Amino acid sequence: MHGDIENILMTEKEIAECVRTLGAKITEDYRGKELTAAVILRGSLVFAADLIRKIELPLTVDFIQASSYGSGTETSGTLNITHPLADDPAGRHLLLIEDIIDSGVTLLNLRERLKSSGALSVKTCTLLSKPARRRADIEADYTGKVIEDNFVVGYGLDYNQKYRNLPYIGILKREVYE
Ligand code: IMP
Ligand code: MG
């Protein structure tokens, strides 16, 4: 285990099982439809790469990036779309893929903006959710795991752009960011 990690929240095996379950549910719910996975950069990169391979549907992938976080561990509340979707969402079933819902500001804003884009449907999928910190009224349509209020890294999730490459999800030691 990396020295900056307090303890492991999800092992590689637990993550794989969780992703498999999400993929199976999504496959079932969208049966007969074509899906566009709208991957929210950068944190969802690893999750999305695994999840799309567990979805047995015709599928396209697009990327969107929004930022409200600075270098700290708190959201600023305002959201900028720093990288819009490359393809026109009109006429598509969009599934927004997020790594973690914290305040909910990011996902709520993106979902509402994309709902007025002419998409046939807009749903959301998150690997992790921290309901204790919610400020915006949103729950994802698909949630992998509900967690307590700890700052977590690994499997795509970062602190100051680091730790994304850890294969597990771990709680970051407070001394690293305090
Ligand atoms: P929200 O807008 O507050 O819901 O923030 C969502 C974004 O904050 C996520 O996409 C992550 O990039 C980041 N974030 C929130 N909590 C954590 C965490 O515990 N570890 C790493 N990133 C986090
Ligand atoms: Mg993120």
TrEMBL record:
Its cofactor is Mg(2+). Its main location: cytoplasm. It comes from the Bacteria. One of its GO terms (molecular function) is magnesium ion binding. GO terms for cellular component: cytosol. Pathway: Purine metabolism; GMP biosynthesis via salvage pathway; GMP from guanine: step 1/1; Purine metabolism; IMP biosynthesis via salvage pathway; IMP from hypoxanthine: step 1/1. It catalyses: IMP + diphosphate = hypoxanthine + 5-phospho-alpha-D-ribose 1-diphosphate; GMP + diphosphate = guanine + 5-phospho-alpha-D-ribose 1-diphosphate. It holds the Pfam family Pribosyltran. Keywords: Cytoplasm, Glycosyltransferase, Magnesium, Metal-binding, Nucleotide-binding, Purine salvage, Transferase. It is found in: Cytoplasm. Residues 13-159 form the Phosphoribosyltransferase domain. Its EC number is 2.4.2.8. GO terms for biological process: GMP salvage; guanine salvage; hypoxanthine metabolic process; IMP salvage; purine ribonucleoside salvage. Belongs to the purine/pyrimidine phosphoribosyltransferase family. NCBIfam families: HGPRTase (TIGR01203). Purine salvage pathway enzyme that catalyzes the transfer of the ribosyl-5-phosphate group from 5-phospho-alpha-D-ribose 1-diphosphate (PRPP) to the N9 position of the 6-oxopurines hypoxanthine and guanine to form the corresponding ribonucleotides IMP (inosine 5'-monophosphate) and GMP (guanosine 5'-monophosphate), with the release of PPi. This is Hypoxanthine phosphoribosyltransferase. It comes from Candidatus Ornithomonoglobus intestinigallinarum.
